Amino acid sequence: MWLDCCRCVFSTYNTHLSSKLYYYFFVFLYFCRVKERNHVFDFLCGLCIIRMISLHIMDFCGLGEAVWWTHVMEWSFYFMSFFFFKAGYFNKGLNNSNTRDYIVDRSKRILVPYITSGLIGMAIYFAFLPFLLERYHNPIEPLEWKHVWETSSFYGNRPTWFLFSFFVTYLIVYFIEKVKGLHWIAILFPAIGYLLFLKGNPLWMSINNVFMGIFFFYLGMLWKQVMNRVPHSVILWASVCMLALFVVLNITCHGEYTMSTNTFSGSFAPTMLNMVLAICGLVGLFSCINLPRIPVVCYIGEHSMVYFISHYPMLYYYKFAHLCYGRSIWNKPDDVLILLPVIFCLCTWMVPIIERIPWLSGRWPKIETNTK
């Protein structure tokens, strides 16, 4: 495409340039091009990250149960599931890839950042521990050996549970796709996730939520097919109707799903329906109106991995540093006002740094995989 553009430019202006200059002009255009992105998903992904970091800041400062904040959560509880939906929406097919190459690729892009970011968070956490024990004589938070196998999160970087569940979801979807027609079993997976919740979430490494992750992964694949085959005018009206129904149901039959702990509040069926309506409705609506790039929010969405793995260790550093000097940030709104801009600014500053480190960002050079 870019070569055709170059030829068009030269033919239009009748320029008589050497082949070497022609080549350099082509290279210049190629490297100066702006990578085309889906602004809808960048925007929604950015909102997810903003919500998540704000939630963690509010929790760290003991204000997570504030009435106004619980209302914000009531209308955005489905956002973590959106990441799985997004993965399915942009999935390019799994059944033709070599199994070993696929597992290695997913491990490098998800599992390696999961381990390295978790270890960095844990290093910060335990570096402060001797000072806190000296001052308070007890750990600020309970330390349990069973944490190692019961959860997939790290002390000092608890949100890493998401990366491990994301990795397991990709693997299970990969093997489901190996069997023709087996993907329809994903319809039953929310019920399995709910059953696990009723049984006390017995699976180790926090993978009770993986069944919900797989469901939304396939929902993303399905919704993309629908949007590609149905006229945009129909999708637009359907999306508006879905969002309107979501508003009505969220008021009359409110329920929430917390993916990190695989817990449901309220009735199962309305909660699931609300999540599907909200996610599909938002994606459909914004796609049909050709949402433009919203600079700050879309930038956060484009570089969501950096914000995701970086913010929690920063929060622990801030909290523990204050505790070492005998000051608590609990129930301190002023600390919220400090942390919100500081965390987002620091994460933004770290974007070019972390994205150059593959074992943190997961951005390894792409290699062609053999087909099996």
Describe the structure.
This protein has 372 residues and is mainly alpha-helical. It has one domain (17-361). It contains 16 helices and two strands. It has helices at residues 2-13, 19-32, 39-60, 67-74, 79-89, 99-136, 147-150, 161-177, 189-198, 210-229, 232-252, 268-288, 295-302, 304-324, 333-354, 358-361, and strands at 256-258, 263-265. The protein has a two-stranded antiparallel sheet. A hairpin with a 4-residue loop joins strand 1 and strand 2 (263-265). It starts with a helix and ends in an 11-residue tail after the last helix. The relative contact order is 0.15.
Topology, pairings included?
Elements: H1 2-13, H2 19-32, H3 39-60, H4 67-74, H5 79-89, H6 99-136, H7 147-150, H8 161-177, H9 189-198, H10 210-229, H11 232-252, E1 256-258, E2 263-265, H12 268-288, H13 295-302, H14 304-324, H15 333-354, H16 358-361
Antiparallel strand pairs: 1-2
